[in-house]
Amino acid sequence: MKCPRCGHGDNRVIDSRAGKDGDVIRRRRECLSCRRRFTTYERVEEELPLVVKRDGRREPFDRQKILTGIMKACEKRPVSYAAIAQVVDALEGEFQASGEKEVSSEQIGERVMAELLTMDDVAYVRFASVYRQFKDISQFVEEIKTLISETPERPPKR
What we know:
By secondary structure, this protein is an alpha+beta fold. The protein is 43% helix and 20% strand.
């Protein structure tokens, strides 16, 4: 590990601690040349499936794309970043644990929509409009009608 200040390759580990969930190790290091202290994080390299796009292209699984899509759908909605990050973590873990070498973008989109449905109706419709490529307002209306007919009665939000 090179020192971020001087680029020297020799350093010593001062302290090592496991992260909250035990999935990362935090190490405090000290450069033996300039004595600067810095922190590194070590985690297991995970085998994530390739994503098969609608046009047949394959690309690496990218949690940031899922995070960005959900955050756009939840923009100006009462959904915390922590809740969004928890959903993305769960989805990433689910696809990793599946052991599949490939996963379709449709599978990912459907799982995201299922999670959004439990979080916020407006965010769900926003995401659906992009994911399902709504062409006009009638498709929004149909999605909302379906949502209303399939959603149990809830007290109005205040």
